[in-house]
């Protein structure tokens, strides 16, 4: 297993828990779709996995190591939902900087190919400050695709990128989840998730409501959208 | 053009200052906020009492009048200084300007709102600066001095501010027209710096003309003292009327001069090799040197050093102080570095990277500055003192940037920090001065205070990072 999340609970304020006893595992070579309504705890769960939030209850292990360890950090890569990047660097410098954090080097020819593939040809040597929102997101994706960590977590990073890049990503993310590597993709784009992922994690009110393979989801509901609608309908029925 | 929209925008900006400046960093804590207010009030009351004592002890009505006239004559000079500082702060606050884009307001309504907001800030600063003197003067010359101060100082202040706004907006429009709008972060501060030199010469000659005219009884003409002349010869009502007419005229010109569209300011320039990005220190150096405000101070320092050499001014290299104030932005500017995963840097390493990058820049600027000073006959011990003082200032300004982070395009937080730190440093300096301690003890006190500043900075970074991870409650 690349990731083991065991009995994780979390609250920002004591009176308002965000995650309740969450447990799941991510094996090698799998793309996992993480879905849930706003405020369901998806981003909190991701931040806990990558140790951006302090874990109090439960345990999270990456490749068998505690998620706060240096080894775990070297194994994983987190693509945040925002486009907060060091604007004082060029795109190319950013890739080298991130690579150096992982103790790796970037294959320049490969980087040039990726820039071209994501419609950013000739923009690698411009400052990130001059990039559009979508270009910053693409740069994050390129970094993940070049560095190929054992676990890549993509938190709504695809919002704002154009269709060509989204299609390129769908193909690339599946290539990424090979040779023992895995990806967690958090998104509200269910159609895309259905095309790229093998498993679904559905989080609601801080609980894991569904943890099934896509085959099971398709068999029972027909689509992720139908599953979510079914859940929301049941929830609405329970309202007074 | 809707004034309602303008007023809503002014209220928006005031709310921004209240919540993002007076409610961020260390000021988030009620205790810290109360302490900060107490320190500021104590400093102001102390300054006020000192002014009253000095004015009553040494001045008479005639000297008060001369000081008032001098203050009025110098108005364009210090308003230009204030305007330049405010302008540079707002150039850094591009994100704040962009926040107003989602509001249904035109660029002209936005420009007017910013002009009113800035004018309020400058009038507030004027009240603080001159308030104590005016109160002290009133105890000697009676309450009529208050009205005279309004005519001599406050009316010219507001009009000068609008005048500089027109010049600024005109230049902004021009650089946008020639396709260099994004570079105005570098161009405009330089033009204002050049204007400051000219204004300094003008203010000097006007003050001398006024002083000679006053003492000899000869007529003199200083435009900024016009309201006082009108009030003295034709009554205050006419002075107010003239002021209002000019206010309306200049306000209209501000709107006319404002560019129709907004163009974001370029915040970073690609200088130094990107290969530095492979190390944490190199990355901090790039974050520092590539920002437009650092480039401005580096160019200022270079020009000042060249000026000192050409004019053969025999002073220690205090020009180094220019580059030490960048510390106030160091922590906030390096935020993306700390947020990059897998960032496993501790508070000590982060702090060392922050101050070492600044020390490198200081040393690079120090080489020519000290060489020029030595060539002009300044002893190396004086240069060493200037470098030591600048190094202490780096530590202090970095602490200000940690306690009052200029985050998310909000550079105003640091103003509060600088004011508070200045108040504390002034109190310490006054204390050391009162006790007249030997130099060795003074140096020891400064070293001890610097150690405390370093320790407090590291504790501050550690605390901020722990709060971010929800390890502790803010």
UniProtKB/TrEMBL annotation, chain B:
Keywords: Membrane, Transmembrane, Transmembrane helix. The chain crosses the membrane at residues 34-54, 66-90, 111-139, 145-171, 183-203, 237-258, 285-309, 315-332, 352-378, 384-405, 412-435, 441-459. It comes from Rhodoglobus aureus. The keyword Repeat does not apply. Signal peptide: none annotated. This is Uncharacterized protein. The keyword Transmembrane helix applies.
């Amino acid at each position: 297993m690349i990731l083991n999340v065991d009995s994780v609970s979390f609250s920002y304020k004591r009176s308002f828990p965000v995650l309740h006893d969450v447990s799941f595992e991510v094996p090698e070579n799998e793309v996992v779709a993480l879905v849930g309504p706003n405020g369901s705890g998806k981003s909190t769960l991701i931040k806990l996995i990558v140790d951006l939030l302090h874990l109090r209850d439960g345990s999270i292990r990456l490749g068998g190591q505690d998620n706060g360890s240096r080894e775990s950090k070297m194994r994983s890569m987190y693509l945040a939902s925002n486009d907060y990047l060091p604007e004082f660097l060029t795109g190319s410098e950013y890739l080298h900087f991130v690579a150096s954090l992982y103790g790796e080097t970037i294959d320049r020819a490969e980087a040039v190919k990726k820039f071209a593939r994501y419609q950013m040809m000739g923009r690698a040597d411009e400052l990130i400050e001059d990039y559009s929102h979508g270009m910053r997101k693409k740069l994050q994706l390129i970094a993940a695709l070049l560095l190929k960590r054992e676990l890549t977590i993509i938190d709504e990073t695809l919002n704002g990128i154009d269709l060509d890049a989204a299609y390129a990503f769908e193909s690339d993310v599946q290539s990424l989840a090979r040779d023992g590597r895995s990806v967690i993709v958090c998104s509200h784009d269910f159609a895309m998730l259905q095309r790229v992922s093998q498993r679904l994690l559905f989080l609601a009110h801080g609980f894991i409501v569904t943890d099934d393979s896509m085959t099971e989801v398709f068999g029972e509901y027909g689509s992720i959208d139908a599953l979510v609608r079914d859940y929301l309908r049941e929830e609405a029925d329970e309202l007074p | 053009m809707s004034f309602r929209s303008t007023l809503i925008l002014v209220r928006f900006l005031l709310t921004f200052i209240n919540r993002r400046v007076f409610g961020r960093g260390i000021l988030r804590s009620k205790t810290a906020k109360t302490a900060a207010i107490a320190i500021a009030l104590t400093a102001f009351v102390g300054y006020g009492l000192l002014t009253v004592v000095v004015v009553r002890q040494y001045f008479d009505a005639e000297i008060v009048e001369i000081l008032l006239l001098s203050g009025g004559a110098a108005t364009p000079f210090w308003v230009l200084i204030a305007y330049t500082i405010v302008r540079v702060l707002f150039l850094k606050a591009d994100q704040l300007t962009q926040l107003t884009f989602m509001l249904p307001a035109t660029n002209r309504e936005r420009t007017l709102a910013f002009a009113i907001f800035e004018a309020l800030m400058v009038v507030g600063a004027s009240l603080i600066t001159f308030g104590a003197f005016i109160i002290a003067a009133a105890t000697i010359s009676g309450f009529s001095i208050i009205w005279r101060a309004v005519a001599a100082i406050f009316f010219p202040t507001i009009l000068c501010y609008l005048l500089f706004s027109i010049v600024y907006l005109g230049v902004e429009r021009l650089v946008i027209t020639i396709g260099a709008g994004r570079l105005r972060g570098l161009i405009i501060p330089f033009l204002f710096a050049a204007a400051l030199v000219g204004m300094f010469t003008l203010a000097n000659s006007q003050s001398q003309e006024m002083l000679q005219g006053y003492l000899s009884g000869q007529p003199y003409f200083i435009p900024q003292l016009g309201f006082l002349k009108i009030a003295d010869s034709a009554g205050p009502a006419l002075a107010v009327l003239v002021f209002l007419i000019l206010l309306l005229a200049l306000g209209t010109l501000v709107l006319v001069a404002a560019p129709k569209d907004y163009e974001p300011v370029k915040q970073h320039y690609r200088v130094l090799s990107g290969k530095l990005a492979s190390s944490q220190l190199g990355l901090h150096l790039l974050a520092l040197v590539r920002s437009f405000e650092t480039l401005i101070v580096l160019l200022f320092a270079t020009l000042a050093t060249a000026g000192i050499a050409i004019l053969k001014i025999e002073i220690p290299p205090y020009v180094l102080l220019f580059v030490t104030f960048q510390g106030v932005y160091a922590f906030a500017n390096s935020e993306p570095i700390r947020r990059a995963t897998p960032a496993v840097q501790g508070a000590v390493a982060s702090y060392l990277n922050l101050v070492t990058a600044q020390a490198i820049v200081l040393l690079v600027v120090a080489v020519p500055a000290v060489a020029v000073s030595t060539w002009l006959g300044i002893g190396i011990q004086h240069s060493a003192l200037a470098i030591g003082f600048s190094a202490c200032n780096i530590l202090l300004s970095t602490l200000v940037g940690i306690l009052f982070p200029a985050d998310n395009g909000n550079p105003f937080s640091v103003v509060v920090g600088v004011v508070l730190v200045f108040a504390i440093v002034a109190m310490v300096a006054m204390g050391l001065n009162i006790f007249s301690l030997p130099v060795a003890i003074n140096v020891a006190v400064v070293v001890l205070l610097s150690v405390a500043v370093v320790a407090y900075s590291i504790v501050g970074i550690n605390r901020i990072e722990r709060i971010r991870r929800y390890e502790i409650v803010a």
